[in-house]
Each structure stands twice: as structure tokens, then as C-alpha cells.
Design brief:
The complex is a heterodimer of chains A (278) and B (391). Chain A is of the alpha+beta class. Helices cover 32% and strands 26% of the residues of chain A. Chain B is an alpha+beta fold. An eight-stranded antiparallel beta sheet of chain B has the order 6-7-13-12-11-10-9-8. Chain B has a five-stranded mixed beta sheet with strand order 2-1-5-3-4, with helices on both faces. The chains are: A alpha+beta (278), B alpha+beta (391). Chains A and B meet through strand 1, strand 2, helix 2, helix 5 and helix 6 of A and strand 4, helix 4, strand 6, strand 10 and helix 9 of B.
């Protein structure tokens, strides 16, 4: 099907985005690489009056490192991260995750900011950024604010972005020699949305331990006690039914097959971090 | 309409086109380059894949306006490409081309594999090809063709191909298997995620579709709740977004508006109510079509009212539904379950309210105020202020 009629404009500066949103907070929809919005437009599930393409704004394409944090512009594409185009992200957890997002054809256009703003519960970046403890830098008419990724997505397709606000960049921890991480997802076929996914991130240098599951009904969910146990005891923490017990309160209502899928993604993700299995 | 100019196969193509025109339509209908095929038109099948600045891109979910100033290459423009030259004969040798519909997209993706992944093995080739669907299921031949080109280039490197490969900026993550894990005492972070809604619903597959069970308590005697629950206009008035347009006995015509994140749909159709007085069980069977997205929904809502003591009752609800069409693409079961759960909760709240304050004689029930945001995310209400926005 074809998209319903809309007006298209390409932004070339942050100010232009800000002005467009301030002028018509309800009627303008921002578009990054159009890999999520495109299908929705074509299926006529979304019918905006105006689309503002922000993918060419130079400020949104930059990557820089400040105080052990990598600041990634919202319009940086999955493929750029996968290819290690920016030195700061080479060997980073982000690079590994990027290579398995959808398909290369999609990765060539899809953007980090677009994916986070779209807030699909099964999205790779949503989960990865929560596990990394990323912060989302949001710009609006009243200036900028920084939102912890754990608070950014509130439910399926819903974020804390207010009318007039947009994602400018995302801060993730820089590559650390001590950090260990894992990422595992089940998909029906390569590139599809995940049925179950888990990301974990451990760094003794910053005493960080996070285990997060995705592809839920809404935002990713933390397993803080499991994370602390694994940090303290390593592989020994996985003995017995530790993982199943940690998942129990969250997945009690799901059918056994689903519980098993989640138990497995958590186990495999942790095994990667523990260096037991790729 | 506006003038859109794109460099396609080395020639500047300027045409009047609408903003909503995607690159695939621009290529086919404006530039009359019909080698590019369109199939699913929402980025799933990969048939429309073309090269934009040398990289494969799905032309059906890339808008033409977004390609101004970029270089597009289609199947008509590969004549002098050294990789395509090899792929063409390999496709032919390995019977990688059957009906030919997916071939232009397959070639674009294959070229990318040969260019970017000189060492790819069969597993990697298949992973990279997974975004292109072949309805003749010719994957065996396509994979063999790509592998043969890779092999030939490894055995006898080609200067022209080497030059193309050298121009690709790529820092492949060589080995990401990590070193030993050092145990440590983690800082307890304040985990500020949203608590899950008390889940009063389960789900599963059932006969003609997905089944979701739920229910709510009513603070009124079962007989009174049952009487209310079999009055169609009353029931509809408690269902967020529902409007009854006409009623004939146990059959109604009407519509129901739903909103799901950025998506919205209004299903128009009919429903009939079957009642079993003895067991206080009823089934509302309905189906409808959303005229804008052409999505179809069919569902049975079965409910039973059971007494809980003298003054209370329990309404158990089971929804068995099937969705077809565009909306089904975005309705993974977990999400729908969440949606229905809240819908049932809101419905129960309205039923209780209405029972508390029955309509006066002759008064028409009003349409339940549809506030999808409050309904869908009531628990997040105070944290939630903006609406969906993407960048």
C-alpha cells in the first residue's frame, strides 16, 4: 500500500527541527532513516500531515568521546556502528549488536535515535542502551535534558519525549578493558523481531552489573538480584534454577514455552559475558 | 507535487512527484526503470532492494525526497560493474534465477556480500541474504552462486574488485569472545523501571486465533450484573471507543476505535450476542474492517457472571481473536495481551460505575470516553506527558 498524503521537508540544522516542532507540535513527525516509520506510513497505520526528515542534520551524525562516555548522534546509522566507522565504538558492545539488527539493507538507513524514539519493545537498541546504562540527550524548546535510558521508554511505542522534544544524542560508556557483556535474542528468522532477548553488562571498574530482558509487553525489565549474584560469584551463580527463579516474578503469567525461551536467552547472554560461550 | 531530482544509474532524473512517493515508485513510475520490483511495500521481502550510494537499501520504505543528492543504482545500471559481471554468470550457472521477480533485489544484496565480506562462508551468506525473500525458494542456487564468486575471487583476485573493496570503510570486529570474568561486588543501582501491571490475564493459541483470558470483579449481585451484561447498548457504552449504530434483536452494527502507540484504527462491523441464561454465560461474536488500513479483525468475547457471596460477582472474560492485514504486522501477542488486559480493566471499571449510577428512564447511554493513553498506560499516567515521537 502507499502512504497517505503528507508534506515532506528535510532539516539541515537542529534549530530547524526545534522550530518545526515548536510551530506544530502535534502535526509534525520526525523521520530518521524511515525504517520503522516507513512501513507504518505505507500501511497507513500512521498518517501525519508533515514529515521532517532529520537524517541529514550534521550535528546528529557526530560521534565524540567525553569523560569515558561516547556521545552518539541520533542520526548515526546501525551500519555505521556495525562497520566501526567511528573509532570510539570499535570493539564496543554496540558494534556487535548493530551487526544483527534486521538486515543490512535496513541497517544502512535505520538510525539509533529513530529506533529509540520508536520504542518497539523488541528493538535491539532499546535493550542494549538500558543494559549499558545509556543516557538519552533530549532537546526541546526549553533547552536540553538528559534522561537515563531506564526511564526513557515507558511502554510499548511510548517514551518520555514531550511535544516539541526530540533525541539529539545518546551517551554510552566508552570501550572498557574490564567490561564484559552479552547479548542474545531469539527470532523466528534472522532479522525478525525478537521473541525473547537479554542483554547484560558487567564492569568491575565501575562496579556495574546489569541483566536486562527485552521483547516484553513494554519497556525492558531488570533482573538486579541475578546481576549482583553473577557479579559476585561468576559462573557459580548460574547453578541450579537461579535464572528461572529470577524470571519467575516477571514471567509467571506466561506459558512454559515462553518462560523457557527467556530462561535460555538470559543463560546464553550471561555465558557470553562469563566467557563460557560465544 | 514537487520536483524531485535523483541521480539514477549515472543520469539525473527530475520528475514531479508527491512527497509520499517512495524511491521504488519513483524509479519505476517516474523514471520508467521497471527492472526494480515492488512486492510487500513495507520492507519485509527485499524485492525492491537497490543501491543508494553503493549500499543496498529497500526502496519501498525509503522516500524519494530523502534521496535527493544521493546516487541510486538499479538493475539496469550494473553493466560496467565488475562484481555484477561475475554474479550474472554465476546466477545463470547455478540456476539462481527462476521466475526472476526477486532477482534484482537478490543481485543488489549479493553484490554487497561479495564487496563487503570476502571471507564469508555459507552460513554467513545465508544470514546476509535473509532479508530477501524468493518465492520460488531458489536460495540454494543463489547461495551457491555467491559462494562461487567469493571462491573465484579468493583464488584469483581481480584488480577492479579489489579497488572497489578497498574503497569500503570497514573495521570488522575480529574477535569479540572476551577474556576471563573477574568477580566483584556490584553497586546496587536504583532500578527505576516501571512495575508491571498486576496481570489478571493469560494467553494462548486457541482454535481460530489468539486467546486472552481476564476478568473483573463487580460489587453487585450476579443477577443484576448479568442483566446489565446482556443489554448490548449498555455493554457497548462501557467498552472504550465503541459506538453502536443500529440494533436488531441480538445483532448490532457499530464501530470501535482503538489506538495502539502511534497507530490507530477504527473497526466498523457487526456483532451478535448469544446468551445462555442458565449458566449466565454469553458470547459476543463480532467482526469488522478498518477502512483506512484495510485490516480485518474477528473475535469472540465470551463472558460469564458468577456470584461471589450475596452482594458481589465476578465477570470472567475470554477473548479469542484473529487479526488480518496491516495491523496484524504490529500486533505481536504480548503487546495485544497488554492492550486487552487494560481494555478489560477499563471495561470493568465502567460497568461498575454504570451499575452504581443506572441510567434514568429514557436516558441514552453515552459513548465511553475513549482515552487510549489513560487506558493503555494508566499506571504510567503521571510520568507520561508527551505523545509518541520518533526521530
Amino acid at each position: 500500500m502507499k502512504a497517505a498524503k503528507f508534506d515532506y521537508e528535510r532539516a539541515v540544522s537542529l534549530q530547524q527541527i526545534q522550530d518545526a516542532l515548536a510551530g506544530e507540535p502535534g502535526g509534525v513527525r520526525l523521520m530518521g532513516g524511515s525504517q520503522s516509520l516507513g512501513p507504518m506510513l505505507n500501511l497507513r497505520l500512521v498518517r501525519p500531515e508533515r514529515v521532517l526528515d532529520v537524517s541529514a542534520v550534521p550535528e546528529l551524525q557526530q560521534v565524540s568521546t567525553v569523560n569515558a562516555q561516547v556521545r552518539i548522534g541520533a542520526a548515526v546509522t546501525h551500519a555505521q556502528i556495525e562497520d566501526g566507522l567511528h573509532e570510539a565504538l570499535r570493539g564496543h558492545m554496540m558494534q556487535k549488536v548493530a551487526g544483527r539488527i534486521a538486515y543490512r539493507g535496513v541497517r544502512n538507513r535505520g538510525t539509533l535515535g529513530g529506533s529509540l524514539a520508536h520504542a518497539d519493545p523488541a528493538a535491539d537498541w532499546v535493550l542494549t542502551c538500558v543494559a549499558l546504562g545509556a543516557r538519552v540527550n533530549v532537546r526541546g524548546s526549553g533547552g536540553t535534558r538528559s534522561v537515563p535510558m531506564a526511564d526513557f521508554m515507558v511502554a510499548a511505542y511510548t517514551t518520555v519525549l514531550e511535544a516539541g522534544e526530540f533525541i539529539e544524542s545518546v551517551d554510552v560508556p566508552a570501550v572498557s578493558a574490564t567490561a564484559r557483556w552479552g547479548y542474545y535474542k531469539f527470532t523466528r528468522k534472522v532479522g525478525e523481531f525478537a521473541d525473547a532477548s537479554c542483554a547484560c553488562y558487567f564492569d568491575p571498574a565501575t562496579r556495574t552489573a546489569r541483566v536486562v530482558i527485552g521483547a516484553m509487553d513494554g519497556a525492558p525489565r531488570f533482573l538486579p538480584e541475578l546481576a549482583a549474584k553473577v557479579a559476585a560469584h561468576g559462573a557459580a551463580a548460574l547453578a541450579g534454577d537461579t535464572i528461572a527463579a529470577a524470571l519467575q516474578p516477571i514471567l509467571a503469567q506466561r506459558d512454559p514455552a515462553h518462560q523457557e525461551l527467556f530462561r535460555t536467552v538470559v543463560e546464553r547472554s550471561l555465558q557470553q559475558a562469563l566467557g563460557l560461550k560465544g | 507535487m514537487a520536483e524531485i531530482s535523483i541521480q539514477i544509474n549515472g543520469r539525473k532524473q527530475s520528475h514531479q512527484a508527491e512527497a509520499r512517493t517512495h524511491l521504488g515508485d519513483f524509479i519505476r513510475e517516474k523514471s520508467r526503470l521497471t527492472g526494480t520490483n515492488l512486492s510487500c511495500e513495507h520492507g519485509v521481502c527485499g524485492a525492491c532492494t537497490v543501491l543508494v550510494d553503493g549500499r543496498p537499501v529497500r526502496s519501498c520504505i525509503t522516500f524519494a525526497g530523502a534521496c535527493e543528492g544521493h546516487e541510486v543504482r538499479t538493475v539496469e545500471g550494473y553493466d560496467d560493474d565488475p562484481i555484477m559481471l561475475r554474479l550474472r554468470s554465476a546466477f545463470s550457472e547455478h540456476h539462481a534465477l527462476q521466475c526472476g521477480f526477486c532477482t534484482p533485489g537478490m543481485l543488489a544484496t549479493s553484490r554487497d556480500i561479495v564487496l563487503r565480506l570476502p571471507e564469508a562462508d555459507e552460513a554467513r551468506v545465508r544470514i546476509e541474504l535473509s532479508g530477501n525473500i524468493c518465492r520460488c525458494t531458489g536460495y540454494q542456487g543463489i547461495t551457491a552462486a555467491i559462494l562461487s564468486v567469493l571462491q573465484a575471487l579468493r583464488e584469483q583476485p581481480d584488480d577492479q574488485v579489489q579497488a572497489l573493496r578497498a574503497a569500503v570503510v570497514q573495521h570488522v570486529q575480529q574477535d569479540w569472545t572476551q577474556g576471563g570474568f573477574v568477580t566483584f561486588e556490584a553497586d546496587q543501582e536504583e532500578v527505576s523501571t516501571v512495575e508491571s501491571v498486576a496481570a489478571d490475564a493469560g494467553s494462548g493459541e486457541k482454535g481460530k486465533g489468539q486467546a486472552i483470558q481476564g476478568g473483573f470483579d463487580a460489587g453487585f449481585p450476579a443477577a443484576q450484573v448479568w442483566a446489565f451484561m446482556t443489554d448490548l447498548p449498555q455493554v457497548a457504552a462501557c467498552l472504550p471507543g465503541a459506538v453502536i449504530e443500529s440494533q436488531e434483536g441480538a445483532s448490532v452494527q457499530g464501530k470501535i476505535a482503538i489506538k495502539f502507540g502511534p497507530m490507530s484504527a477504527a473497526f466498523k462491523g457487526h456483532a451478535t450476542l448469544e446468551r445462555d441464561e442458565a449458566h449466565r454465560t454469553a458470547v459476543l461474536r463480532g467482526e469488522g474492517v478498518d477502512s483506512l488500513s484495510q485490516s480485518r479483525a474477528r473475535g469472540d468475547v465470551q463472558y460469564q457472571v458468577t456470584a461471589q457471596g450475596e452482594t458481589g460477582s465476578r465477570v470472567s472474560v475470554e477473548l479469542v481473536y484473529a487479526l488480518q492485514g496491516p495491523l496484524a504486522q504490529f500486533s505481536r501477542s504480548g503487546l495485544v495481551q497488554d492492550f486487552v488486559r487494560r481494555m478489560i480493566a477499563e471495561f470493568g471499571k465502567n460497568v461498575n460505575l454504570r451499575l452504581e449510577k443506572p441510567l434514568a428512564q429514557g436516558e441514552q447511554p453515552a459513548v465511553a470516553q475513549f482515552n487510549p493513553v489513560r487506558m493503555f498506560f494508566s499506571i504510567l499516567w503521571d510520568r507520561f506527558k508527551g505523545f509518541f515521537r520518533r526521530s
